[in-house]
Amino acid sequence: MLLSHGGEPSRTAGPVARWTVEQVQALAPDEASRKAGARLASAGPWSGAGHGPAGEVWGLCKGSGSKPYRTVIDTAGPAYRCSCPSRKFPCKHALGLLLLQASDDAAVPPGEAPDWAREWLEGRRRRAVEQPGADAAPGPADPEAARRRAERRAARITGGARELEQRLADLLRGGLASADQAGYGLWEETAARMVDAQAPGLAARVRELGAIPASGPGWPARLLEECALLHLLDTAWLGVDRLPDPLAATVRTRVGLTAAADGAPVRDHWLVLAQYDTPDGKIVTRRIWLYGKESGRTALLLSFGAAGRSPGQAMPVGLTVDAELTPFPGGGQPRAELGRQFDPPATPGTPPAGGPTRAALAAYGHALCEDPWLDSWPVTLRDVIPTPSSGGWQLTDADGTSALPLAPSSLSGPGLWKLVALSGGGPVTVFGTCGHRGFDPLAAWATGEDDDHDGRPVPLV
Amino acid sequence: MTSPRTPTGTTTGTAVQRTTTTTPWEELVTSALLGTDRRPPAPGPGGREGPVALLDEAALRTVRHRAGLLPAEAAERPERAPADPRPPLPAAARHRLGHLLADRSAPSGGSGRRGTAPDLTELLPQWLASANRHGFRAPSVLLPALLDAARARTDLRAHVLGFAGPRGLWLAAMNPEWKFALRGAPGGSLPSDTTDPDAARRLWEEGLFAERVALLVAVRRREPAAALALLSTTWSTERAEDRLMFVDSLRTGLSGADEGFLEEALTDRSRNVRATAAELLSALPGSALAERMAARAVSCVNPDRTGGAASIAVEAPHECDASMQRDGIVPVPPAGRGERSWWLGQLVEATPLAIWRDRFGGRSAQEIVGLPVADGWTEELHAAWCRAAVRQRDPEWARALLGTPSTPPANGPGTASLAERAKLLATLPGAERAVWVADFIAAHGLSEAFQLLGVCAVPWAEPLGRSVVDALDIARDAGSYPWSFSGVMGLAERCLDPAEADRLEVLTATPDEPEGAAPGAGGYWSEAFQRLVSTLRLRSAMERELTPGAP
């Protein structure tokens, strides 16, 4: 494992690998932008386009107005700047320019950045160099006041947890059947109480309980499981002082107390395995899965976008970045924060080693020891074959008799068929999350000579 | 708190493995469902009771159960997809296809302005045809999107299925939404090798209707006589609808060798079979039917020597006798047509055009078409000759009947119908076709050229492309709105030679609006030309990406 050495961010002078069309498309904040970007990916509307040695790309795009839009991208960030009024990020112009570069070398020749682009690029790099200094002095202005605030909040959460315990006990005393009749109202009201108690983690779990009675046969067992886990979380919070440190951190995070990423930064060549968004009430959550070539770690970057705005962070699948990741506190959880990046994004990495289905389930079981509330765990399956089974699909070990069923949620999207097509009945390597509901495939690699993707992962979400 | 955990056995298709403990899990669920007041659970370890004890126990079981999950038993694996020996697409072409498919579901200017960007959906058929010509294998990950595209658009199916190849069929068999692929492209889904006569015979005798048609077409394409022999073995026992389809498939590779069979089919029980057989026979100028028709036609159409100048006298048939009906003449005219002229039209249409030269003193087709026709029969006679020229694929007569392109359609020989003219054009060699349409556009503009352009070979030959671009330029200068020409513009985007792009560049500038022009049209025109240029550039990029060894 390479640890941070705190040196100057270096920039290679050599030519930077262009992004592929798939990689650029993965940056799009939503489907509409992807299509709008594809429409701008021809030389027609562009003038003065060019790219620099360290991954800078710029161009003027003729829009409906009299002045063309000025678009600059620093692929080392990646960061984008465009004079258009769009609030999408990156905007369609940035996507279009990157797509143009990806598909037509000649349209974006190497050159010297014009003044308007250089100004922003240089400012950005200056800040990137200065930032570590600014970062060095974090912390609140008044630690005493912060401590009092934290205590007050903990007390409110404790109140919320006690109330929730009471409600769960009442529910079990009267029977879950009544929860079916009460519908969502009961849960919504309880969730609102938890929001008042400043415990968003509890609130989210309560809200999810409301959907279970409508989830088909077997719901009482599922509802009991989730109620029991919620009860476990309540109890854990009420006794959090007595828990060992990593578990206590996990409980705090699960209850909804946000903690800053404060682990020791891990520098590695991180391969981007998957990037996908899930709507989460009023916000959009973007998940980016990374795999460290040297450390063998799998890390998760989370970013959030408010209603109508997409999450800011975007990393094309298949890219490898040399960067520092700072893990969040808590036992055995993969979440981390992206720290400094070093060389510009470079060429493809190799897929994670992976293992058979049995090892994947074992890894999930192992992770549960540190966080019993985990629904799934990131794993890579090596040499598995997508196989239709009664009522669904499973991934079977190429040399064995074991299989992992695919999670019901993954059966409806286009990812399943991409995976089946890629495999052609033969073994593939698949990255995804493995949990009690089954396996959710996120990316796959073809094996054998008919690989059209030069060892790059194929995104399945 | 410890209890033995033994797997209860493996259940196929699920990872869930319940473990047995002192209280079965199912009992806990029942207590929870009905309420601990009504159904108290068995006292847990340590003798605790009530809802909290139930929750404690359930939490323990849930986590333990999840941590102890075992893999399910593997179901029967699918067969491997057959190998596809074609080379993979170059990377750039693969990305391009991804683009074209991603844009497929985007609204393509159905409402409002089309903008300056190319309409990628319209380029998909061209891309697929080109990829198939170069013999590339489809990237497996794009197969689902390709099959979805073909499901929505039947015109893409043949191209897509050819490109998708064996792996595409393998995949389609797994998803009921892609069932259409298994019904098959013609000849593509033949279950056995058609070059083996025994296998072909067996398939012909035992196969489903679709398989038999596919087999007949495939054999006919390779060895016309063998197909005829195959058909003759079972002909008398076939159903009427099937006979019609089978006889129609003889159109491929039609020759004098088929005459005997077709002549017999003239007495078929089914009227449609009879009509099709007659049509096929009349396309064989040396056939006995053609000779009978010629004998009838010359008694109706004759040089008129009563006047000074040579002209044509027409005496339409007075009856449609049984022998005429046997030869495929339909006795009852459609509503609004006189029966004698109806019979005449059919006679002349089925008569070999070659006889007229002798009949009119060695005159050429052009001279004959130029002769005046007595008693207002011109239109009827020329229309019949047009149909005959199309049916017999006679370029000399087609040329004569089309006349010079600069003559306004209403005054020329032959027919004023653009659809008929397009058919006549299709019988001319490609280069001549392009020149004719180019001259037509130069003389009459674009408003009537759409159908004619449709029969020209893609990409358009140099004179034709130039003429279309000039006509568009003239229309713009005249101040017309560009959307009056959106049909031709769309065709030009797909059919113009991509090499024209540079020459068109000058037209993309927004011109000063001329006096009396439609307001704002200039901007729209420049937008339309920009789209034209960018589409052409895209097409040439597409072609370059698919050409192995190109830079």
TrEMBL record, chain A:
GO terms for molecular function: zinc ion binding. InterPro entries: Znf_SWIM. Residues 144-153 have a biased composition (Basic and acidic residues). Signal peptide: none annotated. Keywords: Metal-binding, Zinc, Zinc-finger. It comes from the Bacteria. Residues 69-102 form the SWIM-type domain. Residues 132-143 have a biased composition (Low complexity). Residues 345-354 have a biased composition (Pro residues). Pfam families: SWIM (PF04434). Residues 125-153, 328-358 are annotated as: Disordered. This is SWIM-type domain-containing protein. It comes from Streptomyces fulvorobeus.
TrEMBL record, chain B:
Residues 1-51, 70-91 are annotated as: Disordered. InterPro entries: DUF5691. Residues 1-23 have a biased composition (Low complexity). Pfam families: DUF5691 (PF18944). It comes from the Bacteria. Residues 74-83 have a biased composition (Basic and acidic residues). This is Uncharacterized protein.
